[in-house]
Every structure is written in structure tokens, then in C-alpha cells.
Amino acid sequence: MRKRKGRRRLWIGQAVLCCLLSGCGIRDAAYVVAPVETFAGQMEEEAVETAEGQVEEEISSPERREICVYVCGAVVNPGVVRLPEDSRAEDALLAAGGFSEEARTDYVNLAARVSDGEKLYIPDRQEAEALLSSADAQASGLVNINTADAALLCTLPGIGESRARDIIAYREENGAFQSAEDIMKVSGIKESTYEKLSSRITIN
Questions:
Q1: Has this prediction a pTM greater than 0.85?
Q2: Is 123 helix (H, G, I), strand (E, B) or coil?
Q3: CA 98, CA 76: separation in Å to the nearest integer?
Q4: H or E element in which residue 144 lies
Q5: pLDDT bucket at 132, cuts 50 / 70 / 90
Q6: For residue 130, what pLDDT is reported?
Q7: SS3 of residue 71 by DSSP
Q8: What is the spatial order of strands in the sheet that 118-122 belongs to?
Q9: How many Å apart are CA 115 and CA 89, to the nearest integer?
Q10: Residues 130, 196: one domain?
Q11: Is residue 176 within 8 Å of 203, Cβ to Cβ?
């Protein structure tokens, strides 16, 4: 009887021990596995959010190409300036220090976009007046003998390349023509030649 009771106690003890061990194992497994799975999910979500954020940042702030513009004329610091792509003439002007005191500030369209390799020339007030007069004369079909280049002068009747160079040389030595008739002061241009081109020329 004592042996049987001892065996029963042993079996009961072993059964209780197994239950305790099994219960602890389940609790430990649940305790360990659940946090690992949760942590893995959080890591995956954070990785996705980081990747999406990087893509959005790249899309929202694309790299801008740099361009070079030569700004000259009536500006404070003429020279080549570097600007972001899609810059305006105003940006190029400001990069060159702005207008000088002699500049004709309304001649150039400052809202226009500038391109790589472009030359932006700001005329002074006197140059602007001459350019505007020349443009008006050309629009009316007249040639301004004070501002026309050799090619334009050659379009006049009786004026060839040699005579066109003489007209330009006279302007450089004596200043602008004061009247259309003054063109006869140029060597080789007589009254007969003037009569042919008088209706085609202007000094304004």
C-alpha cells in the first residue's frame, strides 16, 4: 500500500510539474512571440513611410540646372552671371548689380526669361533713343544714316560696300549727321546720289 501511495504521489507530482512547465511555456511563448511580430510590423511600416517620404521629397524638390548669362551695357558690374534655370531678365540684372545711373531702365523687358549663353544688353539713355529711332525708321521703310550698319546702308540706291564704310567712318570721326543733306559731306556722295536716296533716309 505504501508503495502504491508513493507511486501515486510521484505520478501526481510529475503531472503537476508537466502542467506547470507546459503553462509557463505557453505563457512565455505568447510573451516572446507577440512583441517580435509587432516590432517587425512596426519596422515594415516605418520603412514604407520612409521610402514614400523620400520619393515625395525628390518629386517636390527636383534638381534645378544652372545657366550662364552675359550681362553688359549700363549695369553696375557687367560680366557673366550664374543663375538657376527659368530665371528672368530681372534676376540677371540684379546679379550684375542692377542698373547704372545712365541706364534706360524701361528698354529691356525684365519679365522675359533668359536662357543659357544669352547676352543681355542694357543700353544707356542716349543709345536707347538711337535704337528706338532706328527701329521706327525701319518700320516705316527708312534707313537711319546715324545708326544703320554697313549691310543696311548697302540697301540704299547708289550705296555699295565701300561707300557704306565711308558713311560709318564719317560718323565716327565727326559725330552724327545733323540733317539728311549732310550725307553729301561723305566723300563720293554727290547731289545726284543724294537725290536717289533722299526719300529713303532719315536721321531720327
A1: no
A2: coil
A3: 6
A4: strand 143-144
A5: confident
A6: 76
A7: strand
A8: 79-84, 66-73, 118-122
A9: 9
A10: yes
A11: yes
- Take residue 144 and report the three cell numbers written for it: 537711319
Residue numbers of the domain that contains 87: 66-122
List, for residues 69-121, the tens digit of each pLDDT value.
Answer: 999 999 999 999 999 999 999 999 999 999 999 999 999 999 999 999 999 99
| Domain co-membership, 37 together with 80 | no
Which of the listed residues 122, 150, 169 is the one where a domain comes to its end? 122
Residue 156 to residues 77, 139, 179, 183, Cα–Cα distance (Å) = 39, 15, 17, 12
**Angle, CA of 196, 197 and 203, to the nearest 5°:** 155
Structural domains in the chain (count): 3
Residue 71 burial (CB count, 10 A): 25
Check residue 64 and report its DSSP letter.
P
Distance CA 164, CA 193 (A): 13
Cell numbers linked to 80: 557673366
For residues 85 and 152, state if they share a domain: no
37-74 pLDDT, tens digit per residue, is 554 555 556 655 555 555 555 555 556 799 999 999 99
Q: Look-up: residue for cell 525628390?
A: 58
Q: What are the CA-CA distances from residue 86 to residues 32, 116, 120 (Å)?
A: 59, 10, 15
The answer to whether the CB of 66 falls within 8 A of the CB of 44 is no
Q: For residue 86, which amino acid is it?
A: D
